[in-house]
Amino acid sequence: MRVILAGAAIVLLVAGIFLVRPDPVARADDKVCDLLAGWVSRGKPSGQVAIVEIDEQSLAGFGRWPWPRDLLGRVVRRILDWGAATVVLDMMLHEAAANDEVLAGALSGKPVVLGYAFRFDGATPSPSTCALQPLPLVVVGPNASWGAGFFHATGALCSVPELSNAAAGNGFLNAAPDNDGKLRHVPLVMESGDRQYPSLALAAVNVYRRQSAMQLIVNAREASLLRMGAQSIRLEGRSCMRLRFRGARRTFPYVSAASILKDRLPMDTLRGKIAIVGASALGLSNPVVTPLDPLFPEVEVQATAIDNLLEGDAFNRPADFYLWEVVLALLAGLAATLLLALVRSWWSAIIVLGIAVGTWAGCTLLLSGSGLLLSPLPVTAALACSFPVVILLNYVQEKRRAERTQRQLESAEEKTREVLRESESRYQRLVENINDAIIMDDTEGRLVFANRRLREWFGLEGKNLRGVLLEDFAAPEWRDTLRAQHESRMKGGNAPDHFEYEAIRPDGSRIWIEALVTNVEQNGRIAGTQAALRDITERKRMEAQYLQAQKMESIGRLAGGVAHDFNNLLTVINGFCDLLLNRRRDASAYRAGLKEIRAAGERAAELTRNLLAFSRKQLAQPRPLDLNAVISEAEKMFGLLVGEDVDLITRLSPALGQVMADSTQLHQILMNLLVNARDAMPRGGRVVIETKNIEADEDFVRRHPACKPGPYVYLGVTDTGTGMSDEVKRHLFEPFFTTKEQGKGTGLGLATIYGIVQQSGGTIEVASKPDEGSTFHIYLPRVETARPAQPILTDALPAMQGSKTVLVVEDQDAVRKFMRDVLENAGYAVLQAANGREALALAERFPKTIHLLVTDIVLPLMNGFELADTLKTARPEMKVLFTSGYAEETMGSRGIVADDLAYLPKPFSPEQLRSEVAFYLRAPASSKS
Q1: Residue 186: Cβ within 10 Å count
Q2: Rounded distance, CA 105 to CA 186, Å?
Q3: What is the pLDDT of residues 324-346, one digit of tens each?
Q4: What count of other Cβ atoms lies within 10 Å of the Cβ of residue 14?
Q5: Disulfide-capable partner of 814 in 98, 123, 572, 721 (CB 3.0 to 4.6 Å)?
Q6: Whole-model pTM?
Q7: Which residue segments constitute the domains of the chain, with CATH numbers given?
Q8: What dihedral do alpha carbons 697, 700, 705, 707 form, nearest 10°?
Q9: What average pLDDT does this structure show over 241-251?
């Protein structure tokens, strides 16, 4: 703590020095900023600025300075003739001279900007005849004095009034060197009295762009921003712009005034540009010192300022940046102090060096990307001052600590021995109390060590283990195998490291054991083995149950396939028996035989129904369900299930579509997911159940390959539990896979959910990360089906007689013949077809009304639903009665259940067929089709 406090005191001292900013610190800071500006790209010049210099050649050809005013007028006219957009005269013409009217004539009506200078407090007062036009500027700020926003002048020393009035614009030439004498800033706006005036550069850009108005943003500390139309220029201090120098001297195109006057200039040299006329001849120029060059011509300063304004890329260092630099220095210095004090290695020094380098790199990138100048010097100084102090104090502290450690070594040895004994005891307790059996044996297979679990399994508590063979407890059929494996392992041969076998306990019960065996070596030779044995009897039982479930599923699939054909046969057998019994009412031997056949047929039908029930094909009863209603119905039960420390939230879409599913199975899905969520949140948390409608487009199908395009209902269950790794998610839906402790999970819950969702035609996915909770996404196909009224079938319904036409479509010839005979005997006109295509052709040729279609659902080439849809398009008044021996799967795939349509299951009797046909022919048009 002392080291940290000393380092923090040094950092605070450095921050205080930079907050006060004495002159040496300010000079060093300026040099660092100059260094950063030199590293950063100088920016792309606008290409719109050129310098017309009055050089030695011009003075030799046209006389010494000052030139006659008519000669200057010729220069201005010639520059404009060469296509210059604006002419800027970087010179003072404050004394009247001959031919002023000639120069005024050259300036009048032309885009020419003339320079002048301001006088400040302390200057010798002199009369001023200046009548300069102020800058069209709107000043926006917190007060009306603008004291911090401007340089304040007491008067102006400007050009001859005749010339000032003739020029298109006037701008002051004053510069603002810093305390070290280097020119880094140019003031853009000067305040004299209650008016503001532009600099030469700003006036030039104003004339060049023909700006109508400008806006200057001033705060309590400085003028911060100048807006010219859509462009914004960041300022600092008293309306100063920090120059971004394009390079050393003569960076811009230079043209000699002599070349202008003698017409020796290439045609496009000045076209469309701002031409600045100024002196570069020795003795005439007014050189200044810049960070780049100690002899920088003033005319090039103006050119740089104009170019910065045109490009809008001047550097900027706002006033509050000094405070940010001090804050960063405090943070970096304190962080380095903590790091050096707490992490005493070379890595801490490297990290501190990285902080310093990163600060310089960050300041450079900030300047390069945005033009904002942030000095890394305070951070560097804080790190450089705190580093040696903390290192020295660390050394002194470590030396004292080493001396104390040396004095404690004697007593530490005894404590070490005590810890060793405790460690051995802890290890012994761990091995003894583990759920698995841990053993060691020798080369002969005799036990050397066995923990409490093995002794409990085989009744060895209190007995001497020496000489006991583990294979003696194996089931007889496994003993030879275990002996052979052990002998092979002792000889260095191949033997499995992981295997399973059965063992017999003293009470005669059998247990399955999973063994994980490794060799024990001493002095390079195998001295025995060590093994971890696990009781997997329960797992074996579950595997057996799973195999039995697979067998049941296979029986169910077989039953579903057999039921359809078998029920067709039973329809023929039982139906024709009924017809014959009705025709032969005498007590002959034939009638008794027919009754026996009819009774056998009924037993066969019952056998088919029992087979389907045994295979659980009839347990699931899919119906169009509102998932919101299912959740709301069970919500109270779910609250009790998850417990009081779990917040159960439901977000149910009010316009949710229906799904085709079994409500009991949906309850099972929700219950299993909520139980898993509760187990994943032992300390409580939050579970969110969400429903909504979604449309599976191509992008959705691409992200969820198990889905097909179309409408779905989404069910999401999200918890804030422990989450799962990618490895767990890969096996999540596998049967018997579980991450719960032994005896706390069967591993069938999620596998069951997966099967139910697949059976319902949907898909399930999981999104989870360790310590970030889990979300199960379930997508079930949405069905758009109404719930028609259930027809009331009565046994007392009389058979309909008449000339109604019934089209019978059945692929089994015997069944079709039976149905034709029954219906014709009832007085109906019967049309018959063996498949869908034959029925369509027959209906197309039949000119009269077909009142009822009786069709099997399972037909070759075209099923009964497709046939009915096609025929009802052409004959909308026709009614439909479906029959089938086993059609649950076909109806489920269409999102339809038996209650939603006219459906007569096979086998059926003649009376049932006549009754159903009569009912649906008599039913009103709004009834079931």
Answers
A1: 26
A2: 31
A3: 989 999 999 899 888 888 887 88
A4: 24
A5: 572
A6: 0.46
A7: 1-43+322-430 (no CATH), 46-134+150-210+238-311 (no CATH), 434-535 (3.30.450.20), 549-614 (1.10.287.130), 623-783 (3.30.565.10), 805-922 (3.40.50.2300)
A8: -60
A9: 89
